[in-house]
Model the fold of this input.
Amino acid sequence: MNTTQTNDFTSIITGRRSIRKYDPSVKISKAEMTQILTEATLAPSSVNMQPWRFLVIESAEGKAKLAPLAKFNQQQVETSAAVIAVFVDMNNFDYAEEIYGTAVERGLMPAEVKERQLAALGAHFANLPAAVNRETIMIDGGLASMQLMLAARAHGYDTNPIGGFEKDQIAEVFGMDKERYIPVMLISIGKAAEAGYASVRLPIDTIAQWK
Done:
């Protein structure tokens, strides 16, 4: 990575703030939102099953449904360009053939490796306890969520991760199977109307060890 790239990435990281009030006049086109989400999906995931699913809530009707589920985050819901509900899919292995098959088509994986991997993974997922599956894909969902916020920042937008919402209700309210789709977090996105506050981080000597 050259110096310019390093400086750009550092500014994305250090300039990120959790924003609670956005400029309500700013909208994000579907094309640009698609690009941001596409960049978010470059995050790693366990055996590349990419379990994250995104619900982009941007219409007045969608926000009206969301508002009572995010009672302590009304300002973000009302003023943001959108709120992205990040879910993970308990049936993520249903897409294994598509993912690995496309890798073969693009010359990224030999066909025999695909067949060997899918056979092994099929046996693994067939006996995988639901709790273990959920724990694994929640980690994957967190990785994609952070990448989404950094991608948004690179596009010039601000975000705020939200954990305080009615997780037991949101899937059903938006017509999703709540047993299959598990909410990870909400991420509001838009242009900041007020500067966010910088925050303190613990020193590395406190949180890291070298052996």
